């Protein structure tokens, strides 16, 4: 669409040249104008477009129209007179350009302890249409990939938007692919979409621990005997100790698997030292070897704070 500024008409002269139609010609296009874009009829002065126009390449033209009177009979001998008229042509934008996303390479990596006040990432897009019109203004939205509702999008302006976490991501580590849509405000609008990959990584906040319930396996010991027959048959047993630690555990005599026999309470005892005896079934005298084991009990948060007294009386003076 084209708008123009200026007025085109005929120049009046007082002499007999008025009997001859005035001849107009497109004599000059300024340095920013592309030659061959416009043409003018030499007698009617009708200005036409002679080539395709693209506002994204050039949004306006400044044309200079030159008009001659008595052109047919007086131009050659210098009797014709001329005048100039300046016309501005503005190319009105149409919504013919689609938004283009700036690429986000790879995966946006955050941890499961990502701070909610921190931005996960920012998406940006450009539109070659006029940014001062709805055609060049973009709004963003998440259209899929957010079934758990972990993320939200906030438009910052007409060319960018931020993605944030809605709530804590603790324990929700994994890869998420959001489909983000960019839509300009033109009529009809142009719509494009892109994928934003977000990788929530595990944060090392848990130390390994034993699942020490009654009957659970603590460890398996193994001993070998190079003899044959009963002389090489190995059996296991726990040896008694002065502290009575052996009562908390048991050992399978054939497999050497040591099991938990009694509950553990770190607040009462955090280290257990036991001695495992491996013996053969040799005749007449069995032989044996001992192995000392130290078991460390890991603390769990199983006690809540308690006041030392139920009621305290305070007097003020």
From TrEMBL:
Predominant cellular place of this UniProt entry's protein: membrane
The cross-references to PROSITE patterns, in alphabetical order and at most eight, read:
CADHERIN_1, CADHERIN_2
* Gene Ontology molecular function, alphabetical: calcium ion binding
Superkingdom as given in the UniProt entry: Eukaryota
* Entry keyword set: Calcium, Cell adhesion, Disulfide bond, EGF-like domain, Glycoprotein, Membrane, Repeat, Transmembrane, Transmembrane helix
Q: Which residues form the Cadherin domain?
A: 14-101, 108-210, 211-307
Biological processes, Gene Ontology terms: animal organ development; cell differentiation; developmental growth; establishment of planar polarity; establishment or maintenance of cell polarity; homophilic cell adhesion via plasma membrane adhesion molecules; system development
- Mind telling me which GO cellular component terms the entry cites? plasma membrane
Write out the annotated subcellular location.
Answer: Cell membrane
Which InterPro entries does the entry link to?
Cadherin-like_dom, Cadherin-like_sf, Cadherin_CS
Instruction: Determine if Glycoprotein is one of this entry's keywords.
Output: yes
SMART domains (alphabetical): CA
Q: Which membrane topology term applies here?
A: Single-pass type I membrane protein
CDD domains, per database record: Cadherin_repeat
Question: Known Pfam families for this protein?
Answer: Cadherin
Record's protein name: Cadherin domain-containing protein
Give the lineage. Eukaryota, Metazoa, Ecdysozoa, Arthropoda, Hexapoda
